[in-house]
Amino acid sequence: MQARIHHFLNRERLALYSITVLAFIIVLGFTSIAFSQFYEIDEVEFIHTDKETIEDSELEDAVGVTESKYYYSDALNDDVVSLRNYYFDNGYFEAEIERVLSFNNTDSTVSIKFLITENQHYRTGNILNTGLNNVNGNLRIIIDTMKTLQSGNYFRKDDMIDYSTGILELLHNNGYMNATLKTDSGYVILKKDST
Questions:
Q1: SS (H, E, C) 105-135
Q2: What is the chain's pLDDT, residue by residue, as a tens digit (195 residues)?
Q3: 3-state helix, strand, coil in the chain (%, to 5)
Q4: How buried is 116 (Cβ within 10 angstroms: 0-12 exposed, 13-18 middle, 19+ buried)?
């Protein structure tokens, strides 16, 4: 009988010990969340490792971290993607973006550096318009000779949008009121080495 009581007391102590440890872990977790350190952004730098074609002021507009007071890792990851997209939209299809963080625990600040390697700047090559088979000959010639987008200029997504919008306005103003851009239309990029 004494062995059964002793065994029961050991199981009770083990359960009580387990509950105490679990409670301690939960309290410790909430304490670390409540007292976790927030880092204020001290400075944001854009460091160009090969060349600097795009001004830092333009890059600042492309990222949100320059508008934030505090560092958030998710927002910074989004900014890296935003910078890659910005470079891509401006003809740097192979741009590389890295980030370097320097934390200062003394004053709870962080310095953020974006390391940018632009690589090759691509130019617009052949411009092909599709879906204009039913447009009359004179209007087709005008569209084919539009000078808003020219082969040889550096690629810019905004120029492509302006070019497409210009064609659409020209069609609307010349009796093709139902002309639209297809929702799946866009541009195809074929990279060619120009060397």
A1: CCCCEEEEEEEEECCCCCECCCCCCCCCCCC
A2: 555 554 545 566 655 566 665 565 665 554 444 444 789 999 999 999 998 899 999 999 989 888 889 999 899 999 999 999 999 999 999 999 999 999 999 999 999 999 999 999 998 887 777 778 888 888 888 888 876 777 788 999 898 888 888 888 999 999 888 888 775 655 666 666 554
A3: 45, 15, 40
A4: buried
Q: Which residue has the tokens 């409670």?
A: 23
d(CA 104, CA 140): 62
Say if pTM beats, i.e. exceeds, 0.85.
no
Token pair for residue 136?
Answer: 């009359």
The CA distance from 113 to 111, in Å, is 7
In angstroms, rounded to a whole number, what is the distance separating the alpha carbons of residues 109 and 179?
A: 54
- How far separated are the first and last CA of the chain, in Å rounded? 93
- For the stretch 148-155, contacts whose Cβ atoms lie closer than 8 Å and that sit 24 or more positions apart, written own/partner, are 149/124, 150/124, 151/123, 151/124, 151/125, 151/126, 151/127, 152/123, 152/124, 153/123, 153/124, 154/90, 154/91, 154/121, 154/122, 154/123, 154/124, 155/90, 155/91, 155/122, 155/123, 155/124, 155/189
Alpha-carbon separation of residue 124 from 87, 104, 143, 150, 192 (angstroms):
15, 45, 17, 7, 10
